[in-house]
Design the sequence.
């Protein structure tokens, strides 16, 4: 049995899923011990990061005990046995709350579990808690959360990105081994980039959306946030595959992503869209992409310049389609079947009940998007905006199809900048423009991953930069392999923030 | 810069969206939506003549499920999340007219 300090040190470096499962199999640690350590870390660090909105100590303990008993009996354990995993607050569990960062659902407890969470638990994972997010997934900073903003572990005066910012911050600070997020326009990849971890948005239809609280139904996907490409690949392998509860979930075989991870890709062609290396990006971001290009080239990849003129219409297209779908999806919050109901006066009717419950329950960003979506779908504007956006959507898809005829993957920055300061993007449009490189993958339904690619120093603090690799729909195996090539050749993913005393990181310049 | 939306339009949209907003909120959303719509107007630069709209990325068609009986979620469990319940029903304020109509 190793000493406590030994295990703690391993965890501080950021244990991987495989590492934890192996340690349990070798009986070097017990699942109960492991869960305790993570819960202690959450207790110690969550007050400064606000990444968890609730934890499940009793349930986590019970599950851990079960796994220890299975191990003691020599039973087979699942691929995620004993691994503490956090779940974004918009993915339902049939225990605890699922609030979606919203006052509207402040007391909501789901009567059913999402397919994603069920699959994690079947694989032995321990759901340790729920993580903060922008309300209903609408935001790029995790500031639009009714229960307070989450903070970036690299600099707590900055945002962790969003909307899966709580999940990203929790994985970065090692408050869990990996986490689930959801990505409608970049909500897994952008926080992964801002926090210096791996975040994968699977192809549309790769993972069941059953139990993911709907935002944009033709865009939403659940995906993993993890510290390594292998962990993300392992998690996706557990999550992916057909589900009778989601008819948009593809009935396609799920490859063994991990087994293929180190398989060399022969004659790899990497496309770099010239629009992605914009002068508007932070210089440090473009430098990281150029470094990545050099790494791939040195590994024998052919680098091809790609022209994606329509990528510049991604944000405009997205901010018609996503709010349109959101306004329809969020019509279900009527104050009657679940969630908040406003207090009514004697003269108030049903319409007052709807309109007041929704005005009280939804925060400003959600209201804004409902208004925007209602506007673009309303009589007289439907053709001009919504239909046109769906037509541009097809043009964007066709442009990407043509690009993938020339190359195996598209490489570029995940975000135009590194993590910004809390409160910096008060203007909604400036916040929306953060998604400039990420929305296209959702619009076209392809898969995309953000991986750590370096750091930029600002005010004496190191802030992570992420690069994005995008591949054709259902070609996650190639996406992970290409991501792993870069990871194996670099050490960016091994750097961890100085988080055990997060206040110090803001007070003392390095 | 001229606002793209006028206040009456914003008020109409709020009504359609079932949001009871204050004048201050309406004015704020008018400003913000106008700025976002000005960006969205970029889509008018493109020729979309004859392009089939794409509602979801893989052009999926209906998928039929086996017609088998499965146990439904227990009613109490579903009603447990409702803000007001009477017996096995969701309770709502009176839908039809005033007292004199009943």
Sequence:
């Amino acid at each position: 049995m190793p000493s406590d300090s030994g295990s703690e040190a391993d965890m501080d470096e950021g244990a991987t899923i495989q590492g934890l499962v192996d340690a349990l199999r070798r009986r070097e640690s017990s699942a109960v011990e492991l869960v305790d350590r993570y819960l202690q870390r959450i207790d110690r660090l969550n007050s400064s990061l606000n990444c968890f909105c609730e934890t499940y100590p009793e349930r986590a303990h019970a599950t851990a005990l079960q796994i220890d008993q299975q191990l003691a009996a020599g039973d087979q354990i699942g691929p995620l046995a004993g691994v503490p995993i956090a779940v974004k607050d918009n993915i339902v569990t049939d225990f605890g709350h699922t609030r979606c960062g919203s006052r509207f659902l402040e007391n909501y407890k789901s009567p059913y579990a999402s397919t994603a969470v069920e699959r994690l638990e079947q694989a032995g994972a321990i759901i340790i808690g729920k993580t903060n997010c922008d309300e209903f997934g609408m935001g790029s900073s995790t500031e639009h959360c009714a229960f307070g903003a989450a903070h970036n572990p690299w600099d707590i005066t900055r945002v962790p990105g969003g909307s899966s910012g709580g999940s990203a911050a929790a994985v970065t600070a090692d408050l869990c081994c990996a986490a689930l997020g959801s990505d409608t326009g970049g909500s897994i990849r952008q926080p992964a980039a801002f926090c210096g971890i791996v975040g994968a948005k699977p192809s549309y239809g790769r993972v069941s959306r059953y139990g993911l609280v709907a935002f944009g139904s033709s865009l939403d996907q659940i995906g993993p946030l993890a510290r390594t490409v292998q962990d993300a690949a392992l998690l996706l392998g557990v999550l992916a595959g057909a589900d009778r509860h989601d008819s948009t979930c593809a009935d396609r075989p799920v490859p063994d992503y991990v087994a293929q991870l180190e398989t060399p890709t022969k004659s790899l062609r990497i496309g770099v869209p010239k629009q992605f290396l914009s002068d508007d990006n932070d210089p440090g971001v473009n430098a990281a992409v150029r470094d990545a290009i050099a790494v791939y080239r040195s590994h024998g990849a052919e680098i091809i310049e790609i022209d994606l003129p329509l990528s510049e219409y991604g944000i405009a297209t997205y901010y018609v389609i996503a709010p349109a779908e959101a306004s329809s999806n969020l019509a279900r919050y009527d104050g009657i079947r679940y969630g908040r109901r406003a207090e009514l006066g004697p003269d108030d009717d049903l319409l007052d009940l709807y309109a007041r419950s929704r005005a009280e329950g939804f925060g400003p960003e959600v209201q804004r998007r409902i208004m925007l979506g209602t506007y673009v779908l309303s009589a007289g504007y439907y053709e001009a905006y919504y239909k046109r956006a769906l037509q541009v959507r097809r043009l964007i898809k066709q442009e990407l199809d043509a690009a993938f005829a020339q190359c195996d993957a598209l490489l570029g920055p995940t975000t135009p900048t590194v993590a910004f300061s809390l409160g910096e993007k008060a203007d909604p449009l400036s916040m929306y423009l953060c998604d400039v490189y990420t929305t296209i993958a959702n619009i076209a339904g392809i898969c995309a991953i953000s991986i750590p690619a370096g750091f930029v120093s600002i005010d004496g603090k190191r802030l992570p930069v992420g690069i994005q690799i995008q591949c054709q729909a259902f070609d996650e195996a190639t996406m992970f392999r290409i991501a792993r090539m870069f990871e194996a050749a670099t050490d960016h993913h091994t750097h961890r923030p100085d988080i055990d005393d997060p206040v110090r990181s803001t007070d003392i310049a390095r | 810069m001229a606002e793209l939306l006028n206040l009456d339009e914003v008020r109409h949209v709020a009504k359609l969206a079932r949001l009871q907003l204050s004048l201050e909120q309406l004015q704020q959303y008018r400003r913000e939506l106008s700025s976002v719509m000005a960006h969205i107007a970029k889509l008018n630069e493109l020729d979309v003549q004859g392009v089939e709209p794409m509602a979801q990325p893989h052009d999926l068609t209906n998928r039929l499920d086996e017609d088998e009986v499965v146990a439904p979620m227990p009613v109490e469990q579903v009603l447990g999340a409702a803000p007001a319940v009477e017996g096995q029903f969701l309770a709502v304020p009176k839908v039809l007219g005033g007292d004199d109509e009943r």
Q: What stands out?
A: The mean pLDDT of chain B is 89. Chain B has three helices and two strands. Chain B touches chain A through 54 residues (CB under 8 Å). The longest helix of chain B spans residues 23-40.
